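Re: the multi-chain job from yesterday

Posting the exact lines I submitted so nobody has to dig through the queue logs.
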Amino acid sequence: MKFTGDAVLNAPVDRVWSALLDPTVLVRTIPGCERLESTGDNAYAMTVTAGVAAIKGTYAGSCELSDLDTHTSLVMKLQGAGAPGTIGADVNVGFRDGGDGTTTITYDADAVVGGMVGGVGQRMLTSVSRRMAGEFFGNVDAVLSGAAPAAVAAPATAAGGPGAAPEAQGVFVAPPKPAAVTSQGEFLKGILVGAGLVLAGVVAGGVFGRRRP
Amino acid sequence: MTEELHDVRLTVNGVAHDVRVPARRLLSDALRHDLELTGTHVGCEHGVCGACTVLVDGRPTRSCLMFAVSAVDTEITTVEGLTKPDGSLGPVQQAFAECHGLQCGFCTPGFLTTITAGLRENPTPTHEECRDMIAGNLCRCTGYQNIVKAVERAAALQQGTSVEEPA
Amino acid sequence: MTTKLMGTPVQRVEDQRFLRGKGRYVDDVAVGQDVLHAAVLRSPHAHARIVDIDVDDVLDLEGVHAVWTYDDLAGPMAPRMAEPLPLLIPHPALTHGRTQYALAKDEVNYVGEAIAFVVADDRYVAEDAVGRIKVSYDFLPAVVGIDRARAATDLVHADVPGNVGARLEQNVGDAPAAIARAPHRLELDLTIERSACMPMEGRGTVARWDADINRMQVWTSTQTSTGVRAAVAVKLGLDLGQVDVITPDVGGGFGVKINHPWPEELLVPMAARALGRTVKFTEDRREHFISSAHERGQVHHVSVGFDDEGRLLGLDVEFWHDHGAYTPYGLIVPIITSTQLLGPYKPQSYRVVFESLYTNTVMVTPYRGAGRPQGCYTMERTMDAIAAYLGKDRTEVRAVNFIQPDEFPYDQGLIFQDGRELEYDSGDYPASLEKIKALIGWDDFPTFRRSMAAAGRKVGIGLACYVEGTGVGPYEGAHVHIETSGKVKVATGLTTQGQGHATVFAQLVADELGVKFEDVEVVTGDTRRMPYAVGTFASRAAVMSGSAIHLAAKRAKEKVLKIAADALEADPSDLQIVDGVVSVKGSPGTSIDLGTVSVLSNPLRYAFDEASKAATQFSVGDPGKPPVPEDEEPGLEGKDFYSPERATFASGMHAVIVETDPLTAEIKILKYAVVHDCGHLINPMIVEGQIHGGVAQGIGGALYEKMAYDESGQLLNASFMDFLMPYVTEIPDGIAIDHLETPSPLNPLGIKGAGEAGVIPSAAVFASAIEDAEGFPISAMPISPSELFELRQTREETP
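And the result, structure tokens for all chains:
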């Protein structure tokens, strides 16, 4: 399943880049993320609760960042497996500063979905992916604009710099109930396993998933 | 978004059933799927064929044109309710068996309920009245000849008349 | 001696459950269980390219489990799902056959074509989801109607030139030459409109995948359990042995349910496996109109040469057949038209050629009669035209052309729909004609007409003859098993849609085995019970399965007599079986019942009840011989197949007296008569029921029913409000029926098929009668009062 998209965030590229590599941001903005753990250089494990159509479940996932080109692009490799199925995805993420205080992010994902959740249908998966990605970026935008402040400062924040890897080795667990991230009702409890995990998985300090207003 | 469900009590064949259904659930679907009384059949869902006919307070009604929620406070009779308590066939059913008034059986429940009500209203119909009684029900298999005979036979059985069995 | 049941009007066993509302039709299967429901997004356009399918809005619904489009069919689990549906009956002349995909790939070719498949918690939600899928199309020109298909200014399929799927010509002698030198010649142009089976129950499929044992169970409202089974196995990448197809009670078929696999018949099992849940699809009436199948639409051009007696010297028929957007059923319908057109006649030479054309409409597969009504219409209109031309009685002209009783078997010199010679086995057309004339009062009619005319009323009389090839192969089979209780379990693989097979076949077994009718139970259409079968169509069930069941029962009986002879120390030829008890003729005390014979047939180590002790190893058996003799099997079973060399030919004649209103042009049926010959009857009550039903469908087709497509391929009358099917009020009160029996020499019981008979001559007989009433030719059917009124106006304006 391939899909592409873009989002405009209201911050210059360096802040956006930092945010997306900041575990404290990510754990609050990836919908349904319950747990993050560093497993190595640019490699993370996470637990996400996601739903596609009527098929909901918890996935144990991993994420690997590579080909980091500061403020320009990175590649993310994702794997997830859970009761409803499996996902593998390669995502090319591009960053472009708009020069007017905005940054445009483009993403190009190639995902393979298997198991029961794969039975939901290509177009459903693509639609959910797009929604999830849209939500994620909306969440990040809110953080960047200060609407959703960090709850607890991480011991060592990855503040810019190429290939910044977090120094903290903390593990964070979200509250038991997965975040309901949209106001669109029960249906979208959490995120699509594939594309939603796309963006980043990172270790963080003390912040847990936020319930979206 | 989830549909609002309504608690309704449907009295069918003398038995009260409590079901939770959305407002738009057709009576035909409620009978078939919520009450599992699958004898009532759905042929067109637009009120023309009559296969879904049940009796609502004794009157033949297209259950595909009625919402289940509208059927509260009524007495519904389906084909299952025409069978005698001991499991033997009622007179209308018996007449159909004797006269070969059915082939695939799909339209039959609608005819049985319609005729049951018709004979209640007019226990001694003339031949023309027998034909009139079933003029609102479609059958694709039998060509109606034997169904008309079955109406006459049913009337005779109900009257207890010793009419000759059909050849 | 028990009375033979063959030929008696035994009451039907299936009625016991139908009358109590305990039938199990496909939508009744798995009710109350945990089932997901499917719905289908169908094309609203007759011809378009699919640009995009957007399911975003579906996400807001609760309870949707899947939304599939063509892209979802090309997965590794079932790669063949991405291929087009099978072309069931290939033919060398079908050079440009096309079938659809289970879900439309890039293009849709008729209103109703399946584009997306939704599975949800219930049917309401599934339909909600369907309503929220947004498809964008690039419109393409729609080809509707035979004229536009022939003109071919637009094409249905870009790679099918001229919209011609096939062209097939058959010749017997040189008809054009014979016509050229004939003393008299006529040409006719005739039209029959499209119609459809319209069973009261639409299509449906339920499937359950048992992951513990890797088996797929499918319930589907079909006329062919084995056909669906094979298609599901192949398309889903399963072994045939992993798939069971069970035909539930079917609420009518009339031909439409012989086509398979429907897209849903594949998508439902595929979903059951992918989602690990039981999945059900039940279509609604509109879907049946626009996504099942139609039939009957043809245009004919006839050239005929004849002598002073009306004898056919040369008959040349050219016709165009509208087969809709796809051709899964091959050329069966037009082939039947071209061959069965000849009816009971023997033209000295015959040429028939047809083109089977694509249009952007629902596909065409057989509907009761399967092309015969069109052929009969053409032939009978031609006969009437000849009679009118020569000023002769219409029955006389027919009579001189009949194949005579002493000319059977009669080879018409053509290849029939089963790929075999069109050779009529038996019949007596002159005798049928005498009967129908007497039944309708043919000779008294002129007097009747005069008296009616005196009262200012217009009446007409019509007649039509047909021959029907029934019981086509390749075969059917049957399995008979006598259980230790004495009960007999019978299975045959073809299916039932109201024909009373469970009753009729039980009659045959009861007769052959000598058991009580009530002790015989018959199952049809279940591949677990009988996996070798073809299906129910072409009026073949009684002939094919009836014969197979008779033969299988015979085998079982042979074994019964052998074992019983041994037990009773008698000779098998001295034994008789009456009401399930085997006894020595003339010595009723020496007997053994079938249940005990069944016990003895299966040598046991372990007894399971009192009776079975008799078969255990210390009770029976000769230590010097193996317990199960060589070349034998344990148990009391008989299995056999019937596979004839060719079809057997039933025939009949219908006549009708109609009255047409001089002012309103309304058409009223005053009297309808049928003479039919289907060989020996197993159950006359059931045969008569079939005739009644066929005649009613024929009346519908002649006077009321037709598919009304507009130029852009929209079906304007896709509901019962506008597609008019007859109620009791449209059917005459009583049909006069007389029988003739010319047994078939091709099967042991001498039976011929009867299922389609009633509907074959309808268009012909009504056209004949209305023409007789009005005095001008009727060449397009069906005909409504408005159309008759128009014709009258035209006649007045152009005398």
